[in-house]
């Protein structure tokens, strides 16, 4: 292994609480010169505020070390000339988009809509808003449906909450379309992340608390997937059909695990000779 992708929510922090030992693990990666990138499906805040939160928790990072679905989506929209786009994302996240946009209520006055981008907007979902999105998807020509990740749920301070995937599935079913996913577990999203750190899939480890979005998504993209027992981890995950390449109590145990893993690899290589 030569590189690491790291989820944020549930791995580095849980709500507003820091996962014990996380800053030390990140400092260890930095000292060892191991390339790493924070990859998150968070769409509730722009990269600028993610950097601020990391620093407030004692983890030093800059915007270039963070890959979010809005950043990946903005690039795709520009490359494919899919504007204007209707952004169903938190207001703060809109600052990460540079393409021309339109509001759902104004869509009828701007002609064709290139895409509808949907992220996690939590309690802002209403039936009228969902119906507006559905009607836009039924237009001719139909806009592209862009999902900023396909996370099913996440753990907030008040318990589990629905994320973006259930809403995307509802729109796909109602409008008879298929969303382009620009977030975990999309292989395209992992490919962007690998390009950012300059590592091949087989040489990279993904660390996450989501058995499907993080671990299985990474494995399907050719990476190794590590599950940590923090965040949304549940005991039932250990009995699921998805088998992580490694399981740790938390990211704090990464340095010791990494050292043991590389020792074992050297021993195995010597035995083969």
List the helices and strands and how they pair.
Layout: E1 3-6, E2 13-14, E3 17-18, H1 22-32, E4 36-39, H2 47-56, E5 66-67, H3 69-79, E6 85-88, E7 101-102, E8 115-118, H4 127-137, E9 144-147, E10 153-156, E11 159-162, H5 165-175, E12 180-181, H6 187-197, E13 204-208, H7 211-220, E14 224-228, E15 246-248, H8 254-272
Characterize the largest beta sheet: strand count, sense, and whether it forms a barrel: 6 strands, parallel
- What is the CATH class name of the largest domain? Alpha Beta
CATH topology of the largest domain: Rossmann fold
Specify the CATH homologous superfamily of the largest domain.
HAD superfamily/HAD-like
Bin the helical content. Answer: 25-40%
Any idea how many domains? 2
> In DSSP terms, counting alpha (H) and pi (I) runs of 4 or more, how many helices?
8
Give the overall average pLDDT.
91
What is the radius of gyration computed over CA atoms, rounded to a whole number of angstroms?
Answer: 19 Å
| C-alpha end-to-end distance | 20 Å
Strand order of the largest sheet: 5-4-1-13-14-15
Oligomeric state of the chains in view: single chain
- Low-confidence parts, pLDDT < 50 over ≥5 residues? none
Structural class comes to alpha/beta
The geometry reads as: elongated
| Total count of strands | 15
User: Which architecture of the largest domain would the CATH scheme give at its second level?
Assistant: 3-Layer(aba) Sandwich
Query: Which range does the strand content fall in?
Result: 15-25%
- The topology string of helices and strands comes to EEEHEHEHEEEHEEEHEHEHEEH
């Amino acid at each position: 292994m030569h590189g690491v992708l790291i989820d944020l929510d549930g791995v580095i922090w849980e709500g507003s609480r820091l996962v014990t030992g996380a800053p030390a693990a990140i400092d260890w990666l930095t000292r060892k010169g191991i390339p790493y990138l924070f990859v998150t499906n968070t769409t509730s805040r722009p990269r600028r505020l993610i950097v601020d939160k990391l620093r407030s928790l004692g983890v030093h990072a800059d915007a270039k070390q963070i890959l979010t679905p809005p950043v990946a989506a903005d690039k795709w929209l520009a490359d494919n000339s899919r504007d204007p786009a209707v952004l169903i994302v938190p207001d703060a996240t809109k600052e990460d988009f540079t393409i021309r946009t339109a509001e759902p209520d104004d869509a009828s006055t701007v002609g064709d809509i290139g895409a509808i981008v949907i992220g996690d907007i939590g309690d802002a979902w209403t039936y009228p808003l969902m119906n507006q999105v559905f009607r836009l998807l039924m237009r001719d020509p139909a806009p592209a449906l862009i999902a900023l990740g396909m996370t099913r749920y996440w753990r907030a301070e008040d318990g589990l909450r629905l994320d973006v995937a259930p809403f995307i599935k509802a729109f796909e079913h109602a409008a008879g379309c298929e969303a382009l996913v620009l977030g975990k577990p999309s292989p395209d999203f992992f490919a962007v992340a690998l390009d950012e750190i300059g590592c091949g899939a087989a040489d990279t480890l993904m660390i996450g608390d989501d058995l499907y979005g993080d671990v299985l998504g990474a494995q399907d993209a050719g990476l190794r997937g590590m599950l940590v027992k923090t965040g949304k981890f549940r005991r039932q995950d250990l009995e699921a059909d998805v088998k992580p390449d490694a399981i740790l109590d938390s990211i704090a145990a990464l340095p010791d695990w990494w050292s043991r893993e590389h020792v074992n690899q050297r021993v195995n290589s010597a035995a083969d000779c």
